[in-house]
Design brief:
By secondary structure, the chain is mainly α. It contains four helices and no strands.
C-alpha cells in the first residue's frame, strides 16, 4: 500500500456528508479545521474516509456530544 492510501473501501458520500454536518454543528466549517482537534489525517482532512474510518468518527461524534477529544 502506498503512503497516504486508504486501507479499505471508500466511505459513501452520504456518510461523509453526515460527518461534515456533525462537525458543522460543533463549529467546524471543514474537515481541515477539525483535523487537529479530532486527530484526522491529511487524507481525512481532505474529506476522504474509508468505511471503517467514517463509522468510527461518526460513533465518536455521536458519543462525545459537543467536545472534541483531548
Amino acid at each position: 500500500m502506498a503512503f497516504g492510501q486508504a486501507a479499505g473501501p471508500p466511505a459513501p458520500a452520504r456518510r461523509v456528508a453526515e460527518l461534515a454536518d456533525l462537525l458543522a454543528e460543533r463549529g467546524y466549517d471543514s474537515f481541515k479545521e477539525a483535523r487537529h482537534p479530532f486527530g484526522l489525517t491529511q487524507r481525512q482532512a481532505a474529506g476522504k474516509f474509508t468505511v471503517a474510518e467514517a463509522e468510527e468518527l461518526l460513533e465518536r461524534l455521536e458519543a462525545d456530544g459537543d467536545t472534541p477529544p483531548e
